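Exercise: predict the fold of this chain.
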Amino acid sequence: MIQKMKKLTFLIYYKEYDQFLKSLQKLGVIHVQESNDQSMAERLQSSDEIREKEDNIKSVHAVIEALTKLVGNKTDLTKEGKAISALQYLVLYDSIIDSIAVNNAELQRYQKDYETLLPWGSFDRNRVASLEEKGIKLSFYQASGNFMHKHPEYADGLVSKKGKTIYFVHYDYVDSEDVVPAMQVQLPEKSLEECIQRINELHDSLTALEEQKMELAMSHLADIKAYETQLINELAVAKAQYSTSLAADKKIMVVEGWYPETKEAEIDSFLKGSVAYYEVRDAVDTDVVPIQLNNDPYSRMFERLTKMYGFPSYNEWDPTPIVAPFFTLFFAICMGDAGYGIVIALYGLLGMAGKTKKVPIIGEMLDGCESMICALGVATTIVGFLLGTFFGINIVEAGWIPSDTMLGGLLTWLQGNVPGTSYSIQMAAAICIGVFHICLAMVIKAALYTKKEGFASQISTWGWVLLLVGGIVFGVIALVLGLPEDVTKLVLICIGGVSAIAIFLLNNVGRIVKSPVVGILVNPLAGLYDTYNMASGLMGDVLSYIRLYALCLAGGMLGGAFNMIGDMIGANGGAACVGAFLVYVIGHIFNLLMSAISAFVHPLRLNFVEYFKNAGYEGKGVEYKPFKSVNK
């Protein structure tokens, strides 16, 4: 559900404004509304001050992430720090990083020179220079391995061979114009010994710099975090200033904000000690009210799914209480395996105990979803048991639950076909669930828009609800109670007749009131167009739910295939059992991960597309973000 909000407007004398903002930030419950003044909004977008503060926060946060990754669990990351001393540590960090970059660049140059000099070994450059003074030039060449076979005259100068490349020298007179048919190598001015010595020095320097960086992280990471918190709070104040309107020749500052009704006591206490003039009122239809969701513990686990799509508007209904049970059910059906459900539930329990945060990729991606994962795992275990599957094993066929017992008979029946047809009961159940889901969405849409716009504008919508929902409900009742055929036929005709009047004649009452002739001619055509859209759309929507059965079937078949392969390998006995075990483990891990992806994406689509579309949910609300100090 959506938390009720109240609007609070302050008028503050400009000299008291800064102190007022600090006290408002300390209170931490009021969502400051952006100013309606377009110039203010434009100033906020183009503000160099805001941009500079945001850039500073990003750079400091990047340092924190790097140092946090460096220390891992070697230090207490929750201890408090002092922001006042953090700036010098940030300067020191930048200096260390710059020095590391310079040393790495120099190290690369020396390593390149070392690799160039290595084939030639150590030699006295002074003797080479003395030869040149006497008119003899010493040149260095490299060529392919068969070069010496073609040119044996250069064999005396062979120095070394590496792979298919040979390295040789050639003596000649300085003024000679002879051309050697090989690639000449230009050696660096430094010697091989100088390169080795400098490379060792640079490695030592880099090691010292890394140790200095580690010491900085161990001793002063908390101070840098405190500084980041200070910057975030300063940015919040700066943005709040740009959300302030001006009045009375810019002497009076106007601050507008929203607070939840549950914070009434805190607001009253704050207002009693405030020197500002204020006014409190309830929200009206024209207000853009920030949204705070307030659900029961179970639905609260699934609020992040609603947030992925978008917050409801203040005059909408929070879809989370509907999304939560249906997403759980859809996920469980798509997984369809009790064994996988147990694994998922255990992962969720370990996550709630804080044991999964360091799992590569998955731990970070699912951080904060542990309780939801546990609930999904429990639901998957129950549904998987009803579907009769445990790690790809059919528990009835395996004899774990005898088929002649009541429970075994139920599981066998659930795996069979609808009596008198060739259609799977599980597939029919998926379609029935989809029909119920869409019918519920249509009822919610009709009720919501009737509340927002009045009954007269929603007569056609209620006509569809009566035709589809009413027809289905009455049809089920007639079958269960065995109502006489003539009574059933009469009631269904009445339902169809009333629905037709609503859909084809009263779909736009305003048009009839304004011009009866035009209304009588146009409304039926509009009703036909609406009927075409409804029929084609509903058919596609309902068929989407068959994928629940298809994904369940695919996961079960793939799990069974891995079991079959493992059994075939294990039948050979001996060392083959190890291979069979690996097939079981790796195969089911792969199947679990793939099924989990499908079981998340498709139920999300069924809620975001099929349900939200038929429920008329828009999700254009603004999240409630109180103006408060950040404490990390």
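Check your answer against the key: Residues 192-242 form the longest helix (51 residues).
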